[in-house]
Design brief:
The protein has a domain of 216 residues: FAD/NAD(P)-binding domain (3-Layer(bba) Sandwich). The protein is of the alpha/beta class. Helices cover 36% and strands 27% of the residues. The longest helix has 30 residues. α1 links the parallel β1 and β2.
């Protein structure tokens, strides 16, 4: 059995990396965590956690400190571009026995995860080279010229992972033809439910985040980030109905990104493993990025705790996680394709069967990870 003397390095102190560090410490290991960014870097905008994310937080014993943050969301409402009802999903029923759905500031979740990691993060520490040594250890070189050897290196450095490239596990993430906008709005309309307004190859989602704040994210078909995100959001969604006009009146700052996904043949090479978005990033349509990272952490720690070797643990981990992350990728693509159907065809379908269609996208995720 693997013991606490196992030398483990986690590269990346975002949600995936901090969750991995937390899970490993709970399992009796003592990982090191490094991140190339300064400690003063603050995670922006908000985040929506479906029920399976809450279940994973509970397994990490972090659900209690997250509970005071943000606001519980119990229902999803889908509207057409003019603001007329399409369908609803009862989230409390969908995730019954699993966990609450919650919208909260990303910075609040990061703060909880950082505290829960259980050890100091070495910020402004960049990994410049990862070399597999004799198949059972990895030599890591840092930007300051120092180096160290580890029994396990975990690349938790996001969809643009440098560990993925250095370990020859895959190249750059692939754009999916979607531009995403995120914002936190105060002083906007009073909204009590997760609400999506669906237009022609574009969608605007808004949800309550507590303390009078709204978390908004919107997307449109495209391949390049505009130079003025606020102006572009107002241009694209100017004729949308529902809560969108009032939100646009209150919006002050918008983050923009070109959406991409990661799909690679293997998540590990020797003792180097990718987790979270570094291994299986998708478009944010199902809001499963954080949930998958949290589940990854729980399963990885369980696999290591019960394995005779790191190699056996990584094989077990990937065997357990591949089908689930594949489901998320396929359902994400399904929902994006549905969004891109002409409204004249899509909207009547959603009025008839939309609640069942959207709930079905999470069906497999209600089961334990």
């Amino acid at each position: 059995m693997l013991g606490s003397s196992l030398r483990i390095l986690v590269v990346g102190a975002g949600i995936a990396g901090l969750a991995a560090a937390r899970a490993l410490r709970l399992a009796g290991f003592r990982p090191e965590v490094v991140d190339k960014l300064p400690a003063s870097t603050v995670a922006g905008a908000g985040i929506y956690l479906p029920g399976n994310a809450t279940r994973a937080l509970r397994a990490l014993d972090l659900d209690a400190p997250v509970r005071p943050c943000g606001e519980v969301v119990t229902r999803q409402r889908f509207l057409d571009a003019r603001g007329r009802p399409l369908c609803e999903v009862d989230l409390a029923t969908l995730w019954e026995g699993v966990g609450e759905c919650r919208a909260l500031p990303r910075a609040d979740l990061h703060r909880v995860m950082l505290s829960g990691a259980g050890g100091a993060v070495r910020h402004q520490t960049e990994v410049t080279c990862v070399e597999v040594v004799a198949g059972d250890s990895a030599k890591v070189q840092f930007a300051d010229g120092s180096n160290a050897e580890y029994d396990l290196v975990i690349g938790a450095d996001g969809r643009r992972s440098s560990v993925r490239v250095m370990a020859a596990l895959g190249s750059a993430a692939v754009p999916v033809g979607q531009v995403m906008y995120r914002s936190v709005v105060t002083g906007g309309p009073k909204i009590s439910e997760w609400t999506a307004v669906l237009g022609k190859r574009a969608a605007f989602v808004v949800m309550p985040m507590g303390a009078g704040r709204l978390f908004c994210y919107a997307d449109e078909a495209g391949s390049a980030a505009p130079p003025d995100p606020i102006a572009r959001v107002r241009e694209v969604f100017d004729d949308f109905g529902g809560p969108v006009p009032a939100v646009l009146d209150a919006i002050e700052k918008v983050q923009v990104a070109v959406t991409d996904e990661v799909e690679i043949g293997s998540w590990s090479r020797g003792p180097v493993l990718l987790v979270g978005d570094a291994a299986h990033a998708t478009a944010p349509t199902l809001a499963q990025g954080a949930a998958m990272a949290l589940e990854d952490a729980v399963v990885l720690a369980n696999s290591l705790r019960g394995a005779a070797s790191v190699s056996d643990a990584l094989d077990e981990y990937e065997r357990r996680r591949r089908p689930r992350t594949r489901w998320v990728l396929e359902r994400t693509r399904d929902r994006d394709r549905l969004r891109d159907v002409a409204p004249a065809l899509r909207d009547p379908l959603l009025r008839k069967r939309g609640g069942a269609i959207f709930a079905d996208h999470y069906k497999a995720l209600v089961e334990p990870h």
